[in-house]
Amino acid sequence: MALSELYTKYNRVWIPDEEHVWKSAEILRDFKPGDDTLQLQFEDGTMLYSLDTSSPQLPHLRNPDILVGENDLTALSYLHEPAVLHNLKVRFVESKIIYTYCGIILVAVNPYKQLHIYGDAVIHAYSGQNMGDMDPHIFAVAEEAYKQMARNNKNQSIIVSGESGAGKTVSARYAMRYFAMVSKSGSKTHVEDKVLASNPITEAIGNAKTTRNDNSSRFGKYTEISFDRRYQIIGANMRTYLLEKSRVVSQSESERNYHIFYQMCACADQPEFKSLRLCEADEFRYTSMGGETAIEGVDDRKDMEETRRTFSLLGERHRSADVFKVLAGILHLGNVAIRNVGSDRSSISSSDPHIAAFCDLLGVSPDGVTRWLCHRRFVMVAETVVKPVTSKRAVNARDALAKQIYAHLFDCVIQKINAALQVPGKQHSFIGVLDIYGFETFDINSFEQFCINYANEKLQQQFNLHVFKLEQEEYMKEDIPWTLIDFYDNQPVIDLIEAKMGILDLLDEECLFPQGTDQNWLQKLYNYLADNPLFEKPRMSNEAFIIQHFADKVEYQCWGFLEKNRDTLYEELIDTMRTSKVWTDLSFSFRSSLYLLMETLNATTPHYVRCIKPNEEKMPFEYDSKRVVQQLRACGVLETIHISAQSYPSRWTYIEFYSRYSILMSQQELVLTDKKQTCRTVLQRLIQDSNQYKFGRTKIFFRAGQVAYLEKLRLDRLRGACVTIQKHVRGWSHRRTFLRMREAAIILQQYVRGQRRIRKSVTAAALKQGWAAVVIQRYWRGHLTRQIFRMVRSSSIIIQAFTRGWIARKRYKKVLCCMVEVQKALILQKYARAWLARRRFQTLRRLVHNVQLSYRCQQLRKKLEDQVRTPPQKNSTTLTWKRWGGVLLEEVGLVGWSLKEVSDSQVEGLTFKVEHLQNENNQLQKLFQEKMSVNDSIGQEVTRLNQENMVIPELKQTVSELQRHKQELEEQLEEQTRGMTDLKPRGVVVNMIPNMAAQLLFMCVRHADYLNDGAKLKSLMNAIISGVKKVITDHQADFELLSFWLSNMYHMLNCLKQYSGEEEFMKQNSPRQKKNCLQNFDLSEHRQIFSDLAIRIYHQFISVMEKALMPMIVPGMLEHESLQGISSMKPTGFRKRSSSIDYWASMIFRLYSHLPVFVSDPVLSQQAVKQTFFLVGAATLNNILLRKDMCSCRKGMQIRCNISYLEEWLKEKDLVQGTSAMETLKPLCQAAWLLQVNKTTDDDAKEIIEQCSELNTVQKIMYFPCPQGLLQDREGGSSQLMLDTQYRFQVTFPFTPSSQALELLQLPSSLRLGFITRI
After folding, report:
1. Is 213 a catalytic residue?
2. Burial class (CB in 10 A: 0-12, 13-18, 19+), 1272
3. From the candidates 74, 216, 226, 347, which is the catalytic residue?
């Protein structure tokens, strides 16, 4: 698509502006080819932007809102100056972010405020991360350099540049601090501390206050940090470039000399400095020329303590006294008074205290110094002439001597620092940190600015070639055809400066002439370089020349070029100073040192940090667009943008493109399973020109403006959808309003028409009839209403009656049901009791009958016997037998026999029957007794059954609980078996129960106690402790082994307590266990040793768990999109962030599998879970704080959803109550809540303070979109930004007695412990 087609309504463009450099405006009307104006609207009104009809140059288009504030400037669709300027402003002013990527460059904007983003926790957070996974940071660049050095075995360089006050020194210092933190050597040399300690010394002797910066580096520094094969620091080496010697003797207004002079003057009253004869800084000429001797907020006395401490750390404490002597001598030399003696002579008073102090401190002859400052020796052909000089030339000689002394002292200190930083060991690789001036241009530019800009030209050339090379590698990796890119090559400028008959060559030539002058050299430049398009002669000046550098045109004044290039000092003074004990003869050539520097940089992989100064007033987070754009042009950022814009600057992965632009896809395209092919199809349909994009292996490459075009199509589609929705909603609303209005109009019309008809047809008779009709209607309606009321009331009463009857019957039936059940029970009881009563009655009646029969039989026998003894008469006898027979028939009717006549045979028969009846009576009595005993046993059995029936409900409940417990145990056993399978234990762990080792070891201890062998017991205990320590040391990362020995050491500790014989530990012991207690030795001291060993194993165990879980935390908690439909994918520019894949299921599973499955006590498992959840919360929150793209309402919703998954997992494992794990996630929960709430009003601030009690003010204000003014005055507390992921909760080992009988312990044969015998 042509770029001109994007100038449509609602799009925005950038218009040049004098005050803000660029100003945004919205297009009001579509631009068509041939139009000579572009109708725009600014915030303050509309305007017509005129175009050149001959070659219309349309204004720069503004990027879509989705791309504004990107981490990487190369991710912008439109790559041009206003886009870069605006993106930096949004991040710096609105988001308070000082770092931004621009391809391989890290742009650092000086905040002029102390930020909480450089702590040790932040260093650990960036350690091991890929560049682009987190927010831009100097630590990310340092980590990338360190990682590439370790991965590719290639030396690295970090090039930090920028103008004075931009923050170069601080950035370089933080980079070196990062290397010192992540590569701790562990040796006793503390070389990391020495590397960091070199910074205060070099800043003291090489930094000074300027009008732009209170701590400006006045020299270039390349620090080469050496690493061994384990990539640990073993030393460092420092090279310096172009020290500003002129500052020693001359400072501009509001500037200071080097810091070290003011530090010494501030400590003049200390005993160590009494011999230096120092006084206040404003009393020395060299420290008072700028007018200011103090810096606001800087304590020179305290800084001197730090400087001296670092001298001691570097092992140069004894040499620091000599350094201070030389520095004090320079101050005294500046106060030496040189007066005129006539018109061509000068002299120094022999009583001048300053010349005496200078000579005394440096150990030189006062006469020699005094003489050769005021005289000069000329060597002629035939003789040598000593000639006096004027006071002006003498002052120049004095200042030249001071500058030379300071320069040599500076070199000497750097040499001593390098010697102190060298330790034994072979260098395997190194990382260099270059802290050098950026491109400089002032109102008056001299030799120093010329050298600085020359060095930046060389660095810029190296930078352009490196960027070009990286672009080529990226294209080759993605299999995209490489086309030659046209970019600015500054080789002609470099040739202008350093080629034969160039500026430097002509300068060296002029310096060879004794009578050479700056004017002669300038005239040579005019003559030889007039035809060069990059060299110009100013129109209004004959004492300057102009060079067109890559950044800007710079006008240089030729004054002092020859003198500064010669860097001359009279030979006589040099000979005099050679006698000093602190003098060293060192000399460096800037051109040769620059060549060596470039050779070093070209042999390394460079990483670039460009420091930007946002304003001249040093106001925190104030953004001056004019100053920033000057530096962007000078530091090569815009050149990077230019190179990227020439090819395919916008780069999206297929997943990002599919997620963002699926709204532009048709239904047929959405159903395709191959998302990569879907992206190809959609893009070919949307953009017809295939040259506007290229398909790589993993990314889609777009030319400038194409992403904006896709955003326009997406916005148009969304706008069309919104218009459609609005159309239907508004149509529905208007239809509803119309129908209501029409209905109201119809009603009004009806009433109006009715009134008209009434007025036409109304008469007196009609009124009477109408009134009568109304009365009739009233009574009739009243009658109908009363009838209806009565009917309704009657119906209601009937319904109520039936309802109440139904309710009563229901209640009655319910009561009756209960009564029927009671009645049934009573009937059952009645029949049961009746049956029992009848049985008792029948038994008693039978007994009574038997007794009566027996008694009567006895009486009858007696009578018969009496009658037999006295024989009666026949008639009487017959009557008597008849009477007795009737009696017997009456009394003994059941027997069925009768007596008709009495005879001997009959008596015998009766006797037999009587005996038979007696026998039967006896049997009946026995039967009665048996029945009585049966009745008693039945009663007892009934009582027992009643009691058992009362216990049955409790037994049923117990049985159900046992069944449920059995089911839970089976589930736990199955889960533990699955966990054991997943952990894949090896060796003896498979074949032994978790605590067998502890029990076996304790039995050996018990045997030694039984034998009362103290030496054997001590040897055994030492062997156990040392053996366990050796095992866990040799297997520090073996999760299963650590958990096994943690369990056994904990059980060993419990055994030592349980069998110690102390009453508090024996309460739950069985009698047999009490007999097995230790009898002869007290092992309470060893309990503490085993406790410490268990704590050590626990911490090591937690560290292994954290190492396993840490890679899953960020993908699972932050990058996993558990809520579909709210993702907001953005392009990642030059870098590709790690893909957000679905780690959640694996995270939950591995979290559970990494629990201590070998630990039998649940208390340890709960503590491990709590510690793990704290790690999850802390790591997630720290990552949010370091990734601004995560601070959104949508991400807050995702985080809260993922936290709910963790809570559900805890509930599933029944770990909510015992672990307090959710308490550790409170800071993360509050952070997620804070991302979702409003943060604008004072009430919002109060709510935030109440709800976010776990977050400190720094976390609320700096990294969450929170109102600074509302919170910073309300809260105090900690200013720590990051949570400490290394924090450990205190572990406890509660006493848990074991019911295991030691004598019943069985040893599996697979253990092969045949040497152990049971006693």
Report:
1. yes
2. middle
3. 216
For the segment 435-453, what is each residue's pLDDT rounded down to a tens digit?
A: 887 777 778 888 888 888 8
Distance CA 14, CA 79 (A): 12
Q: Residue 63 has what DSSP assignment?
A: P
Tokens of 468: 């070009």
Binding-site residue set for ATP: 162-169
**What tokens does 1171 get?**
């510690």
The two tokens of residue 1271 are 């919170």
The percentage of residues in the chain with a pLDDT greater than 90, rounded to a whole number, is 14
Catalytically annotated residue among 63, 87, 169, 565: 169
Report the run of H or E that residue 524 belongs to, with start and end.
helix 518-528
Residues 21, 632 contacting (CB under 8 angstroms): no
Model pLDDT for residues 1170-1197, shown as the tens digit of each residue: 888 888 888 888 888 887 777 777 788 8
**1276 carries an active-site annotation:** no
Question: Higher confidence at residue 440 or residue 162?
Answer: 162
Q: How far apart are CA 391 and CA 373, in angstroms?
A: 9
Terminal alpha carbon distance of the chain: 94
Catalytic annotation, pick one of 71, 155, 217, 995? 217
Q: Give the CA dihedral 1124, 1125, 1126, 1132, nearest 10 degrees.
A: 90
- The active-site residue, picked from 244, 255, 440, 457, is 440
Closest CA to 203 of 226, 172, 157: 172
Tell me if 130 sits within 8 A of 661, measured CB to CB: no
Q: What is the mean pLDDT of residues 1016-1028?
A: 87
Instruction: Give whole-number Cα distances, 346 to 284, 377, 379, 1024, in Å.
Output: 21, 15, 21, 89
Catalytic site residue from 155, 157, 213, 565 = 213
Mean pLDDT within 915-942: 71
pLDDT tens digits, residue range 80-129?
Answer: 889 889 999 999 998 889 999 987 889 999 998 888 888 888 888 888 88
DSSP string across 1161-1200 = SHHHHHHHHHHHHHHHHHHHHHHHHT-GGG-SHHHHHHHH
- One-letter identity of residue 835: W
Distance CA 518, CA 984 (A): 83
Would residue 440 show up in a list of annotated catalytic residues for this protein?
yes
Q: Give the integer Cα–Cα distance in Å for 201 and 139.
A: 23
If we measure between CA atoms, which residue out of 1123, 1168, 1167, 1176 comes closest to residue 1148?
Answer: 1176
The encoded tokens of residue 738 equal 């119309």
| d(C-alpha 374, C-alpha 393), whole Å | 8
Kindly tell me if the per-residue pLDDT of 853 is higher than 60.
Answer: yes
Q: Rounded distance, CA 645 to CA 931, Å?
A: 118
Q: Of 69, 103, 132, 165, which is the active-site residue?
A: 165
Spatial separation of the C-alpha atoms in residues 476 and 470, rounded to whole Å: 10
Q: Reply yes or no on whether 946 is catalytic.
A: no
Map tokens 């030339």 to a residue.
393
Is 463:608 a contact under the CB 8 Å cutoff? yes
Q: Give the closest residue to 70 by CA, choosing from 95, 48, 52.
A: 95
The dihedral through the CA atoms of 89, 91, 96, 98 has a sign that is: negative
935-942 LR contacts (CB < 8 Å, sep 24+): 935/836, 935/840
Question: Catalytic one among 164, 185, 391, 604?
Answer: 164
Model pLDDT for residues 508-561, shown as the tens digit of each residue: 888 888 778 889 999 999 999 988 999 999 988 889 999 998 878 899 999 888
Contact 675, 654 (CB under 8 A): yes
- Which pair of structure tokens corresponds to residue 565? 């290039």
What is the structure's pLDDT at 984?
Answer: 37
Helices (H), 1014-1082: 1014-1034, 1039-1058, 1071-1075
Active site residue 164: yes
Query: CA 359 to CA 353: how far, in whole Å?
Result: 10
- Known catalytic membership, residue 1026: no
Active site residue 216: yes
Residue numbers belonging to the annotated binding site: 162-169
Give residue 977's pLDDT: 39
